[in-house]
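Design request, tokens follow.
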């Protein structure tokens, strides 16, 4: 998937979501602390952050189900506070939790949901059949939910979110708890939606998911945006290209690293692991790896990831 130029000005007609100084408070708790967003139509835009970072709260304001405490927000050119009903009619939402109706069959879940929108019954049924084909559930159309796997239920939730032909779809942790095969099938369907020009907002804890699907993303922590860009650009800007992990207790670290010239090399500690970030393969990295192997310290050399970016920017792991 191509990565748009993050710095290029975007015409208002090409923008799906605009936020300026967006704030959400719950009493004294500030869940979202004055963020700015400009999400283009047709892109997959990701929100990365640990639990409590403000991702879901931001998504709820975009969905017009939670009113901002401050700042401005426009979704598809509308004010979610004043025009909440119109905004919700033009969105599709795939929640993290399974909220399908267990008393209905697969096709009934789509038809009942589709009936909430002002369209002829024949159109609703036609769209339901088309979406079952899109998510590869035609053979399960008359089955009850207890007969579906977790991956099938997630695909059905995506199909349901598309019943109103939305201009923007919100996906909250769409593959959480799924096995690798099911995750890959959902990724394929989301890439097909992207190819059709559907705007998607995505939250996820899976770094590979964000890298595969998102044109751009933000990293959030404690209600603020710490960084925004295309996934590979963020990795290159903040952590370089190579990472060396040493499994060494903190009390032994000084002895292991003694005499090595690591000036200017950024590192972070995660439990009993020290993580070093290198812009590229370098003599310093080679010396570090050589020392670790000479003193029998467990060492891993790998490519940098978005999780490394989060660790460097926040000093903690994404799943904390």
């Amino acid at each position: 998937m191509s990565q748009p130029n993050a710095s290029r000005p975007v015409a208002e007609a090409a923008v799906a979501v605009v936020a300026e100084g967006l704030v959400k408070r719950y009493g004294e708790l500030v869940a979202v602390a004055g963020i700015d967003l400009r999400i283009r139509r047709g892109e997959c835009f990701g929100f990365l952050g640990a639990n409590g970072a403000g991702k879901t709260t931001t998504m709820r304001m975009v969905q017009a189900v939670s009113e901002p405490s401050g700042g401005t927000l426009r979704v598809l050119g509308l004010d979610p506070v004043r025009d909440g009903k119109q905004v919700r009619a033009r969105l599709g939402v795939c929640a993290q939790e399974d909220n399908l109706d267990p008393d209905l069959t697969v096709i009934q879940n789509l038809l009942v949901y589709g009936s909430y929108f002002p369209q002829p019954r024949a159109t609703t049924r036609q769209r339901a059949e088309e979406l079952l084909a899109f998510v590869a559930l035609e053979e399960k159309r008359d089955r009850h939910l207890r007969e579906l796997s977790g991956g099938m239920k997630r695909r059905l939730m995506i199909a349901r979110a598309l019943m109103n032909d939305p201009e923007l779809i919100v996906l909250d942790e769409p593959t959480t708890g799924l096995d690798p095969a099911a995750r890959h099938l959902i990724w394929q369907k989301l890439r097909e939606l992207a190819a059709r020009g559907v705007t998607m907002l995505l939250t996820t804890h899976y770094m590979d998911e964000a890298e595969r699907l998102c044109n751009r993303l933000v990293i959030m922590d404690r209600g603020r945006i710490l960084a925004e860009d295309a996934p590979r650009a963020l990795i290159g800007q903040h952590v370089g290209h190579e990472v060396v992990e040493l499994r060494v207790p903190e009390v032994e670290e000084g002895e292991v690293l003694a005499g090595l010239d690591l000036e200017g090399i950024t590192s972070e500690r995660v439990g009993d692991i020290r993580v070093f970030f290198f812009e590229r393969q370098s003599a310093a990295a080679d010396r570090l790896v050589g020392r670790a192997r000479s003193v029998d310290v467990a060492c891993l050399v790998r490519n940098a990831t978005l999780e490394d970016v989060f660790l460097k920017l926040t000093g903690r792991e994404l799943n904390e």
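Comment from the thread starter after seeing the answer: thanks! The longest strand covers residues 15-26.
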